[in-house]
């Protein structure tokens, strides 16, 4: 993952989460990134209450509210406690297995789309009610 022209995370220790009508979201170890607490929260009926972070990249570039995590996840999602998901649209680029990902449409979703992931996906115009 790149932000501000530099690699800010490179891991094989990601947790891949799949939800109905979504491409995968990857949760990375929080300790692997420079994060700053950001305003706001949201609620996922499956994972629990999320908190948000700004992501800091090279040359002090900051991507506001570009990451989130579940500090007290619901049962079944305990492995996400010390991990953070990143909106790929807020980064210079993100890769999975060497392939640059496409961000999921919409400003609420953080899915990572590669050539091996086939939609349709939530997020675009007219898909909110799926």
Write the layout of secondary structure elements.
Layout (H helix, E strand, L loop, with lengths): L1 E2 L2 E2 L7 E3 L7 E5 L5 E10 L3 E9 L5 E8 L13 E4 L8 E2 L2 E2 L1 E2 L8 E2 L17
Antiparallel strand pairs: 1-2, 3-4, 4-8, 5-6, 6-7, 7-8, 9-10, 11-12
Describe this structure in words.
This protein has 130 residues and is an all-beta fold. It has one domain (2-113): Metal Binding Protein, Guanine Nucleotide Exchange Factor, Chain A. Helices cover 0% and strands 39% of the residues. It contains no helices and 12 strands. The chain has strands at 2-3, 6-7, 15-17, 25-29, 35-44, 48-56, 62-69, 83-86, 95-96, 99-100, 102-103, 112-113. A 6-stranded antiparallel beta sheet has the order 3-4-8-7-6-5, with no helix packed on it. A two-stranded antiparallel ribbon has the order 1-2. A two-stranded antiparallel ribbon has the order 9-10. Strand 6 and strand 7 (62-69) form a beta hairpin. The termini are far apart.
Number of structurally distinct domains:
1
What proportion of the residues is helical, as a percent range?
Answer: under 10%
**How would you describe the shape?**
globular
Name the strands of the widest sheet in spatial order.
3-4-8-7-6-5
Order of helices and strands: EEEEEEEEEEEE
């Amino acid at each position: 993952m790149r932000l501000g022209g530099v690699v800010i995370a490179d891991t094989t220790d990601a947790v891949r989460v799949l939800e109905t009508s979504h491409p995968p979201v990857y949760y990375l170890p929080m300790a692997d990134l420079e994060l700053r607490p950001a305003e706001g929260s949201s609620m996922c009926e499956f994972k629990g209450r999320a908190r948000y972070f700004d992501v800091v990249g090279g040359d002090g570039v900051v991507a506001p509210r570009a990451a989130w995590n579940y500090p007290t996840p619901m049962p079944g999602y305990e492995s996400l406690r010390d991990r953070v998901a990143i909106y790929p649209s807020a980064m210079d680029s993100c890769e999975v297995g060497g392939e640059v990902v496409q961000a999921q449409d919409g400003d609420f979703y953080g899915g990572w789309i590669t050539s091996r992931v086939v939609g349709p996906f939530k997020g675009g115009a007219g898909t909110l009610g799926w």
